[in-house]
Specification:
- This protein is mainly α.
- It has one domain.
- Helices cover 89% and strands 0% of the residues.
- It has three helices and no strands.
- Helix 2 packs antiparallel against helix 3.
- The radius of gyration is 16 Å and the shape is extended.
């Protein structure tokens, strides 16, 4: 998992930096890091409460559901971009 996480973060970081106008790269990277690091303090208490109230199984199901929703939203967004001819 650690290796896959490292590969995913490196690929995401590189694609964001290469896909952004160089004049805006610092601002975009600041937002990216803020969302990347700021998601844990927001999501962890919610999943912790869910685990305490409903058990650890539902914590994993909740985290997996959010992940699946994120992947589906990304696929739909990228599919729309590819159909409209944007790069």
């Amino acid at each position: 998992m650690g290796f896959v996480t490292l590969l995913t973060m490196t690929a995401g970081n590189a694609s964001i930096q290469l896909g952004v106008d160089p004049r805006l790269r610092g601002r975009v990277m600041a937002l990216y890091i803020m969302l990347l690091m700021g998601g844990t303090p927001i999501g962890a208490p919610i999943l912790g409460w869910l685990g305490e109230a409903m058990g650890p199984r539902w914590t994993l199901i909740g985290g997996g559901a959010v992940t699946v929703l994120g992947v589906l939203a990304s696929v739909l967004m990228l599919r729309g971009r590819l159909r409209s001819g944007e790069s």
